[in-house]
Amino acid sequence: MIKRFLLKSGFTLIEFIILIAIIAILSVHALIKSTGMSVRLRTQGLGLASDLRYTQTLSMTHGQRYCLVFGTQNYQVVNSATSLPETLGAGSTVALGAGISYGSFSPVLTMIIFDSHGAPYYSTSATCNAANAAAATSISSAASIGLIRGTQSIAILITPETGWITQQ
After folding, report:
1. In 3-state terms, what secondary structure has residue 145?
2. What is the pTM of this model?
């Protein structure tokens, strides 16, 4: 009798698939809520971190200093030898997304420079040329670049010497 009841009270395949879909939707919703961060802010941070890594890679590949220069609502990668910007995606300047702005910079900086070994430097100059890149200050403790959207914020960290880039 009990065996017969268990066999008749099971899920059909359609009911099981619907249950799995509902669990997946609730999980994604909970994941987004639990991070406490908007998708746009996280995506902007990942893009900035990726472009910092690209700048570091260009420096090591070409054996010369490249700069990531910050504007008020944008940034660009510049070759210090030629002072010309590199192409990033559709153009040479990446604009921050709607509602996203820079937070604090630690140390105070206007550009991050990488040498031919990938070591990070910083400068408060807004012009990337050979003289400014050579005069840049070595990062002695983790540098932080903040991004803000409303009440949410993230930081891109750059470690000294190695230039390891992470997002928090």
Report:
1. strand
2. 0.76
